[in-house]
Amino acid sequence: MLLNFNKNDDIIIWDLEEPPPAGHWKIILWSAYEDLSSEVNCVSMPIEVERRADELRSAYLKWVFDLGEMQIGNKKLKDHMEIRLGLSYWWMTSIAQKCNVSKTSKINDILKAFALEKILISTKPKSIKIYSKNKKLVQVLCSLCKSLSLQHEAIKPNNNLDFCCYVNYNSLPPFFRAFLYLSWYISKSFPIFFKKKIFR
């Protein structure tokens, strides 16, 4: 059993910068890399991934192999991506190459999802609440909870400054998308200019 996580606990998966709310529930910090060995109701997923490194590495390698061999129609996935005879683009992707340099590979999130699955299977929580601004991550975590038949809910952060994370503006012209992002970036960075730096 993970730390002092018990069966039928209420669990919060927290993927926000601000501290999670205090309460009787157990908290899974998705991105925060903190040593929480003294906290009985909280676990850091980056540390949990390191703790289970060998186990997760094997699971990931098997998953990549099975994904490439997955049958779609009458062909395997790697065959669908064949550029020419004997050469498939599948082997050039960051996932198949096990390349974790690019953020687009999302390998860190994949490993965390593997670790989370084991936590949820062993604890069988009563309910799960997911807090994240990453829509794709929320979709993956909701799908995982659904596959395990676990009661879950995705909570949208209440922050008007972060509306760009939720508004689908990809259909807008590039100029408007650039303007929206610039406005959001300035609004997030503006307070920095008022902070005083003290040099000793």
Molecular structure report:
By secondary structure, this protein is of the alpha/beta class. The chain has three domains: 10-53 and 105-157, no CATH class; 62-103, no CATH class; 161-194, no CATH class. It contains six helices and nine strands, in the order E-E-E-H-H-E-E-H-E-E-H-E-H-E-H. The chain has helices spanning 45-51, 53-69, 77-80, 107-123, 135-147, 174-189; strands spanning 10-15, 26-29, 42-44, 71-72, 75-76, 82-84, 87-88, 127-132, 152-155. The strands form three sheets. The chain has a five-stranded parallel sheet with strand order 3-2-1-8-9. It has a two-stranded antiparallel ribbon with strand order 4-5. A hairpin with a 2-residue loop joins strand 6 and strand 7 (87-88). Helix 1 crosses helix 4 (107-123), helix 2 crosses helix 4 (107-123) and helix 4 (107-123) packs parallel to helix 5 (135-147). It starts with 9 loop residues before the first strand and ends in an 11-residue tail after the last helix. Mean pLDDT is 78; it is low at 160-169 and 195-200.
